[in-house]
What we know:
Blueprint: E1 11-18, H1 38-51, E2 60-65, H2 83-96, E3 102-108, E4 111-115, H3 119-122, E5 127-131, E6 144-145, H4 146-158, E7 162-168, E8 181-183, H5 203-213, E9 234-238, E10 247-252, E11 255-258, H6 259-268, H7 277-291, E12 298-301, E13 319-325, E14 330-333, E15 346-350, E16 364-370, E17 376-382, E18 398-403, E19 411-416, H8 429-441, E20 445-447, E21 456-460, E22 465-469, E23 482-483, H9 489-508, E24 522-528, E25 547-551, E26 555-562, E27 568-575, E28 581-585, E29 594-596, E30 601-607, E31 616-626, H10 658-665, E32 686-696
Helix pairs in contact: 1-6, 4-5, 6-7
Amino acid sequence: MTDSRQKSPQLYGLLIGIDHYLPNQLPDGSSYQNLKGCVRDINQVEAFLQHKLKLPSDNILKLTASQDTFNNPIEPPEQLPTYENIVAKFQQLANIAQQGDSVYIHYSGHGGRATTLYPEVKGKDGIDEALVPTNIGNPNTRYIRDIELAFLLENLVNRQVIVTLVLDCCHSGGATRGNQTEIRGINAIDTTIRSSESLVASREELITAWQKLSPTPTRNLAVNGGMLPDAKGYVLLAACRPSESAYEYAFEGNKRNGVLTYWLLKFLDHPNPELTYKVLYDYLLAKINSQFSKQTPMLLGEGTRLVFGYEKRPIHQAVTIMEVKEEQQQIKINGGQVHGLVQGSQLAVYPSGTDFTSIEKRLAIADITSLGATSSWAIIKPLSEQPQQRRQITQGDQAVLLNPNSISLVRKVRLLFLESDHFSSINFKPFLETINQKIAETNWLDLVLQNENAHYQIVINQSGEYEIWDSGTEKINLRPVLKFNDHNATTTLINRLVHLAKYQGIYELNNYDSLNPLKKALQVDLFEIPPDFQAGIRPDLHNPCDMLNIKVNEQFIVRIKNNSSKRLNVTLLVLQPDWSISQIYPSDEVSSFEEFEPGQEDIITLQTSLPEGFKQGVDIIKAFATIDPTNFRWLELPCLDQPYLSKQLRNLEKAKNPLEVLLTTINGNGSSIRNLKPANYPSQKWITTQKKVTVIRD
């Protein structure tokens, strides 16, 4: 008999909320204080699952610790989120969930940090990030450590279960003002000597799984909020970055919710079966960051997956609308100088999750009026056609670049006509007129006269093929060849020129501020693979270099280090010989950056490749570091002649001189002479550097 469940995948929920922490004190005198919104979070998530998604109560596993007036939790011992009960519920979930089923796991409570129990993979000074059980005050009680949680999740993924994990907690703390706000974490690192025996798996199994998941064994903190290595095979929504705080706040009356959980439920209250987790994240980022500037939610893993769904959709990435001032007709976006935006750059605003190629779905046009390093303000210009049918712009909506509005971004093109006896009978005038017309229609190109300098030259060679030359007479290697009289050849030619203009702009993007305090903050080194290199074991690296010559399909190492006294958000892009640009670090499909503490370093291993037909090519590793969170995925480009997916309509280019543009357009009055120090220009909040790898085919 066939199991009917195979035809109807099931959804299961594991919900853990902890308001009440039994009396506890860490060695430094700090303690995990009681919270007020965690159980409320879990009860509301349970109500959503039951009423909106019609999930049977038998499909929900729940552990809570509620407060009562006698300073004890009201739940019986078997329902309390102790270490033993939490592990048991995870294992129960793994036993009942079958291939193709989905599980939703939601934790609201304190996050903690403790001296690592696994120095062989974390280092002697390593830290374990952890979920904090209700009875952590008992020195015999154990944390749910990151290595254990990673194993539990990997166990579900290996069973081909679709996993969504929400962590509404943090691993840092601080003072709050008023009685409506609390932080779900503390600053202390627990040095209490606790049992190293795990109920999850043997020590060897835990270490092996962690090394498999984490590309750098000694790495303690990852971009996902400090709890896990790169999320593979599941979706993770974390309340904040590792250095930040996860707040709970009284949004409605005097009853608190976790900020992440509150806005998550607000989004889910208006379900749309075609929205992805990336769309959900953009909404959460705008809602949370606008009210709690020190809480930046994080999304890891399969962001292209539909919310509570099985299928995936292309990512619709662009800048996100972070704030709306309706009376002033202004919007704040999370894009700025570091992305190549300039004063006057023009954007099209769309509802979140919309196909950006659909012009009729635009909400408005916006021009940037105040440029920042990673965020900017723009003034809204309503669309004239059918305004009554377009809703107001709201937080979480998105925008894509229409016009760079920078002369330095516009590439000059010259037509270089070569006479040839082979084509003496052909009238080229119609072709030239078409080229002129199509160049005039794009914002990225400008046709110049024969005696003017040009970035690119268009040539028809002796074989009747279009060629594109650089400023000299060097042919740019573009494939496949393009016959001038082929169908749509002229359109393809202009598209190639636009693509080259964008690629070159990103390649040249730099911060020329000589007084930039981050000038030497970001260190990127290249290394050949050591002879004794083993995957999962940190290599001993010597002789760093800025350039490498390496054979195709061979590996090399990139070391990244934060040399500054500030936390930095780091992203790596690669510019490749097929004229594509893609993000390689962080490597998952939705993360925008990796947070680096002062002095922190990381290493990644990359493997070279070459497009078919290429004997040699150059990969450019371009690294960015910013003070504020930012997204570089909208700088990505497809391969030449490949269609731009919705997520790739976000491509931006650089200003000729970012500091000069800022001085003349943003801070026209300059710095105050009386202060005798430079103004805090946006250029002082980001830095970029790049390295060259030449790839050779035997």
